[in-house]
Amino acid sequence: MGKDNQPKARQTKQLARKSGRREGYDRILIVSEGSKTEPLYLNEIRTKYRLSTTNVQVQHSQYGTSPLQVVEYAEHLFINGDENKYIEPHAFEQVFAVFDRDDHITYHQALGKAAALNGKLRNDLKQPVSVQAIASVPCFELWLLLHFEDVHAPLHRDVVYQRLRQYLPDYDKGRAGYYQQTCNYSRAATQRAEQLAQLTTAHNGIEPYTDLHRLVTLLTTLKT
Questions:
Q1: How many Cβ atoms sit within 10 Å of the Cβ of residue 133?
Q2: Is the separation of the CB atoms in 78 and 88 below 8 Å?
Q3: Are 67 and 105 in contact (CB under 8 A)?
Q4: What phi, psi does 41 have (nearest 5°)?
Q5: What is the pTM for the complete model shown?
């Protein structure tokens, strides 16, 4: 038998990848605009519901924070994978790009690109892959605010932060634990988000709106 001359670190990575066991539910790739707030929140859900990292991967965009860059990085990561993150190419059934409206000039382009990719990519099982934009107008924090109150009129993100801190006084982007602090009110937040969806869409980009209830519901029911 020939001698294995691979560096030990590489052998360790390969062994870790091979030992990862896929569970019997969809494999989901989530790429977010934010590098801290959204990944921390979504990974907290993943941990609470004991979702395997082999099946559910949460990453922030390495291309930049504009919505179009988020969608483009999600596409790149799905197609090419990332050995350093133990992500295999084409290894998902669903892909989500999470981003805010804010003042981004590529917001509508990102919505369009995600829609164009939906059902066009194929995974390693030769199945069509769902690609979805998870947009928030004006920002992710609207979803948290909906846990505590109704929002009907357009708000600047600074006003959203201000009102959110009435309920979460220590709120700061980049801190962990906000799912735990808000999860008891998730049903009310979902109902409010669904009510907003009856009045407007992500494409309007002006009225308050968020798709995060769809992603949170998926993650919290994935194993049921």
A1: 24
A2: no
A3: no
A4: -65, -50
A5: 0.90
| Crossing angle (nearest 10°) for helices 107-117 and 67-80 | 30
Q: Counting Cβ atoms within 10 Å, is residue 174 exposed (0-12), middle (13-18) or buried (19+)?
A: exposed
- Residue 222 has φ and ψ, to the nearest 5°, of -60, -35
Residue 19 confidence (pLDDT): 40
Model confidence over 160-178: pLDDT tens digits? 999 999 999 999 988 999 9
Model pLDDT for residues 166-222, shown as the tens digit of each residue: 999 999 988 999 999 999 999 999 999 999 999 999 999 799 999 999 999 999 999
- From the list 29, 43, 21, the residue with the least C-alpha distance to 94 is 29
Q: Measure the CA–CA gap between 46 and 25, rounded to whole angstroms.
A: 13
Q: Is the dihedral of CA 136, 177, 151, 155 positive or negative?
A: negative
One-letter identity of residue 37: T
How far apart (Å, rounded) are the C-alpha atoms in residues 209 and 193? Answer: 7
Edge to edge, the sheet with strand 28-32 lists 56-60, 28-32, 94-100, 130-137, 209-210
**Gap between the Cα atoms of 204 and 186, Å rounded:** 25
